[in-house]
Amino acid sequence: MNKSDDKITASMPKQSVSLFNKYFKFFSVTFLICLTLLSLTLMIFIADYWEDQKKLDLYNAASNVAAFCSNSSGNSESKEYSETLKTTINNIAGVSGADILIVNSQPDNAYVEYCGCADKSESETVCKKHSGMKIPGEIITSMLVEDQFTNVGTLSGTFKNNHFVASSKIRDKNGNITAVVIVIQQLSDGLKPYLSSFIKTFTVAIVISLFTVSIGVYIAAYSLTKPMKQIAEATRRFSDGDFSYRIKIHQGKKSVREIDELQYAFNSMADALEDLEKSRSSFVANVSHELKTPMTTIGGFIDGIIDGTIDEEHRGYYLKIVSDEVKRLSRLVVSMLNMSKIESGELTLNISKFNISDMLLKIFLSFERQIDAKKISVEGLVKLGSVSIEADPDMINQVFYNLVDNAVKFTDYGGTISIKTETDGEYFTAYLKNTGKGISPEDLERIFDRFYKADKSRSLDAKSAGLGLFIVKSIVELHDGKIYADSVQNEFTQFTVKLKVRLIQ
Fold it and tell me: In 3D, which of 202, 224, 206 has the Cα closest to residue 214?
């Protein structure tokens, strides 16, 4: 683990949890809650259905017993009928798992006359549990009135616990009600097997579902957090000064759009940082060279004058060289200060009215010696009309001074520089064109970047730190203007400056 890792680890909260663990826990708990709610809802619906079905089953059992008793009422004195009745009732009670009671139909005398319980002797008609049991009169009345009586309760306190209750009427051949068949089953007796079966099924379903979902959540959480880990790794490398690391982007149907966009944006940022670092390194090298060369020249000539190596007759010539080098250093310092002000937003404009045509003429005159030395033809100066605008004169002068300086520097021997201006109701436009080897399309896209130098060999641009065009573009944009560059290699380069200012003719 390197120092940056130690710093990152030390700055992290002690109780921090990884994104993977958060995703995994969140999805797992959410799924468990949803599955539980779904199961409870399903259990309620199934319980309602099971209760209705149970009532229906008990009612069918009561109806079967009542029908058998009604059909056999003619032979009530026969022993064969008594044995058949017992056997039938006992069998139905065994199949339904409920108690079957035959009760007198008189509300005031509704005692249990027979029960289908198995824990009684052959001679007994009622077991000990139901012996002497009387059904409340209002219950019997309800059973006699309703065509299909089913209920869940204690039968007005007859039982301590809730029971499923269903009844059917026994009629004689004349259709008169002679007794009532009541089928009862304790609620817990019927509910326990149901709940036990449901809980077993639910438990198995939860275990299988949780296992399956845990695998899916693990894979999903891992796929979501993996890019974050890559970004964290890239950030650590960047903090160590390594800007070459890039995040691998896997495109496909399973990729996440937002993650892909984040990775693309991060790689774009990395490209920009790498370019900026290269530009910064190049800038440091350029500035070091720019400072070293004139300072060496200045120091050498000053020492020569002091120790008498340079005679008095030639001192003026060498002092002129020293003066030029001092001015060169001054321009470099001013450029760096302007760049700092531009980046911090502290560069302000001092707007005033001035004649921009006169400014352009004076700038070209300041380069008269260099122009004559390279036998350059200047076209368009005599055609410049007098145009006064409102802008920052010092800033605009710096813009065109840098552009003319570049034009003179990169124009081939015996070449041509042309200047053309035009105005309309919105813009003042200047076209500065020079012949020469031109700028490649790759360099043309970046010539306005900080520290960028198109001439990597430094053969033509030896005295540049790569700030001139960046400052030019920034100043033009501060005036709500625009600047463009066009070039054809080995033919020409043209800069177009459009200043959005109020014109005063």
Answer: 206
pLDDT tens across the length of the chain (505 residues): 454 455 444 444 555 556 667 777 777 788 778 878 887 887 788 778 878 888 888 888 888 888 888 877 544 444 444 577 778 887 888 777 788 888 888 888 888 888 888 777 777 788 888 888 888 888 888 888 887 888 888 888 888 888 889 989 988 888 888 889 999 888 776 666 766 777 787 778 778 877 887 787 777 777 777 777 777 788 888 777 777 777 777 665 555 667 777 778 888 888 887 777 776 776 677 667 667 777 888 888 888 888 888 888 888 888 888 888 887 788 777 767 776 777 667 777 888 888 888 999 999 998 898 999 999 999 998 888 888 888 888 889 889 998 998 899 999 999 999 999 988 877 889 999 999 988 888 888 888 876 666 654 444 444 455 667 888 888 888 888 899 999 999 999 999 999 875 544 4
Sign for the CA dihedral angle at 184, 186, 187, 189 comes to negative
User: Cα–Cα distance between 444 and 313 in angstroms, integer?
Assistant: 48
The answer to whether 178 and 106 are in contact (CB under 8 A) is no
Which amino acid is it at 225?
T
Q: Please compute Rg for the chain using Cα positions.
A: 52
Structure token pair of residue 72: 């056999």
Q: Are strands 177-186 and 163-171 parallel, antiparallel or unpaired?
A: antiparallel
Distances (CA, A) of 180 to 98, 118, 151, 490: 16, 20, 15, 118
Percent composition of the chain: helix, strand, coil (DSSP 3-state, to 5): 55, 15, 30
Kindly state the tokens that stand for 35: 């599955």
**Contacting residues for 181 by C-beta, under 8 A, at least 6 apart:** 62, 65, 66, 69, 100, 101, 102, 103, 167, 168, 169, 170
Q: 49: how many CB neighbours lie within 10 A of its CB?
A: 10
3-state secondary structure 1-38: CCHHHHHHHHHCCCCCCCHHHHHHHHHHHHHHHHHHHH
H or E stretch covering 185:
strand 177-186
